[in-house]
Amino acid sequence: MDLIHLRSFVAVAEERSFTRAAARLHIAASPLSRRIKDLEREFGAPLFVRAHHRVELTAAGEVLLPRAGEILDRVDALGDAIRTADGGAPRQAVVGIAPEVSPTVRDAFLAGLAECHPDVAPRLVPASTEPLLRDLRAGHLDLALVHGPVGGSGITTRFLERQPVGVAVGTDAVGDDRSSIALADLTEIPFASINHDSAPELYRNLDGLLTRHGIRKRITLTGDNFAGLAHLVATGQAFTLVGLGNGMATRLFHGEPVRILPIDGMRASITTVAAWQARRETEQLIGDLVEVVGSLVPPRRANGGP
């Protein structure tokens, strides 16, 4: 048994899926399955019940999970302990940030960190919400600023911001004399988005919203192809939804023949939350990051809800 086997076990236990755990660990499913079988052989007991489309922990797996997590947390904390003992070496915090996190939230977080903990050097990792959450669970990130809702166990979140959502649509498709638009006016234009795997909870909610308003045409681009999204919207071949703040998607259309309009009679929004691993809260670095996050929101929102 080694740390690789323990990390593999914890990933499967937290994801409840060999496929998602393999993506989180950036390996194929077959070597991951072999690692788990090696671990089960060494312990002499099955750790998972493998059912169709679902994986559950056995009694032995339930006993192992908190102990494996504690071992990994201690190992992961060694770097900070050594840097502290070395005296004066900056602590690095790896912080994921999703596309529609506003500059207001980003800059307030960085300014608060610089003021309260100047010995912490943040490194921002931009990506979509779901890949960031996978890296957070895998321990590659210390904190993530992502778009909620966030599902799954073992992750603590704190509400930071809610941005109203508007429509980005080509000027030729709607004209340039409108100050707002109803979704019912867009039923003949496809809704375009990046791959829904980038933020499945967010896109699941959006899909239901659009269907209820009679919008059934969809164009889904591969990966995080925001440039392709801009081309489709600017040429009138599709519309998309964006935060009305100064997020990345809004800046993407700057200089294009695109109108960004509020939606009539609807209060759709994009929620931004800070997320971290609950079991790492006792680490000094994570505690310091969470302290800064807590200073960004009113106390009444401190439990993750607006």
UniProtKB/TrEMBL annotation:
<keyword id="KW-0238">DNA-binding</keyword>
<protein>
    <submittedName>
        <fullName>LysR family transcriptional regulator</fullName>
    </submittedName>
</protein>
<dbReference type="InterPro" id="IPR036388">
    <property type="entry name" value="WH-like_DNA-bd_sf"/>
</dbReference>
<keyword id="KW-0010">Activator</keyword>
<dbReference type="InterPro" id="IPR000847">
    <property type="entry name" value="LysR_HTH_N"/>
</dbReference>
<feature type="domain" description="HTH lysR-type">
    <location>
        <begin position="1"/>
        <end position="58"/>
    </location>
</feature>
<comment type="similarity">
    <text>Belongs to the LysR transcriptional regulatory family.</text>
</comment>
<dbReference type="InterPro" id="IPR005119">
    <property type="entry name" value="LysR_subst-bd"/>
</dbReference>
<dbReference type="Pfam" id="PF03466">
    <property type="entry name" value="LysR_substrate"/>
</dbReference>
<dbReference type="Pfam" id="PF00126">
    <property type="entry name" value="HTH_1"/>
</dbReference>
<keyword id="KW-0804">Transcription</keyword>
<keyword id="KW-0805">Transcription regulation</keyword>
<dbReference type="InterPro" id="IPR036390">
    <property type="entry name" value="WH_DNA-bd_sf"/>
</dbReference>
